[in-house]
Amino acid sequence: MKFSDRIHHRWSKLIAPINGKIPAQGCWSSGWDYYHYYQHQNLPGLNYYSHWSTYQEHYPVPRSIYPQPHGAFHWTTITMPESYWLSVPQATVLSGRQSVGSVVAHDGKVIHDLSRQWANHPQKNEACHHKFPRPTLLENTIAVLGIGGGGMNYYHWLTDVLPRINLLKYGGIWDKIDYFLIDEPSPKMAIGLDILGIPLAKRIYTRFDRVLSSPLVIAPQFLRAQPRWRIDFLRETFLPHRDTNYSKIEKIYISRSKASRRRILNEAEILDYLTPLGYVPCWLEDLSFLEQVSLFSQAKFVIGLHGAGLTNIAWCPPGGRLLEIFPSESIPSYYWVLASQVGVDYYYLLSLNSPPLSQDDTVIDLKQFQQAVEHLES
């Protein structure tokens, strides 16, 4: 969080109990429930548009040097919910620490599946318990894209924020949007909004404890699942902007040596082994967004520690291979799913010498690493 945002957040928490109020007095479990309840009551602007219906996705079992897949990969089929946007008349939009982008309908209920907070416990939503400052009243139609922190995290920006923009391209709603409430992107990632046709003049950036009221709020569903259309959209949108003359590197090792945390302490040994095999270390923080797209669009093998940089496998050609190294007992399945959707074979290595969700540096077992790479290339 920026220093100015921290000051604003603390000040807002001081004055909110005096001048603010709790904005929601209950919740709708879904946008469909809200729409279905009010659809025949002639609410001006109320609309529900579903572009992708529910369906099932199937993923190949991850590959590794272990006799059985890790428990994190015990499932290979998932049912994806439908993907939709909802236009909510006379609504309020919140930007609390956890409630960024939460939409409170005209009846005083927060619409749960438009919010990133409390996936399994909607009644705990911050909108129902925390006092917020008085809302700023707008006379314009706003679209809600903010999720809180997404603008600074490469994975969440690409897979949670930008695909919701794609939802708004359908159903004839795009030209009716005056402003977009969105997380402020880092300078490196802002070009994504330019390419998608959201000019600076139409952006309102989320801020902790900012509250906006609008005669019409348009909110795409928060994508808790990982539907394949997200990746299809990213590839169709950004791969045409890659530099086809960019240096071709077919074997990439993503280095974190310039990071402040979660580094591989014996990376020199790792590179001593990888370099003769043709792997080239890459420092993604030195590359622009489109340079990363260009680099990975030509990669056939990618090796890296679990982290946001692996999101770049979205640009890899089908048939490539990824080896993800887990340094702690936290084993998210994000990149297994992403790789499967692209058509990249997924391999993993466990180097569990750190606590779950640890940000500590790590040491990789060199013998196991060599076995994993041999398996990757076999």
Automatic annotation (TrEMBL):
UniProt KW keywords: Glycoprotein, Glycosyltransferase, Transferase
Pfam families: Glyco_transf_61
Taxonomic superkingdom: Bacteria
GO molecular function: glycosyltransferase activity
Residue ranges constituting the Glycosyltransferase 61 catalytic domain according to the UniProt record: 154-321
InterPro entries to which the protein is assigned, alphabetical: Glyco_transf_61_cat, Glycosyltransferase_61
Coiled-coil parts of chain: none
Listed name of the protein: TPR repeat protein
Species of provenance: Gloeomargarita lithophora Alchichica-D10
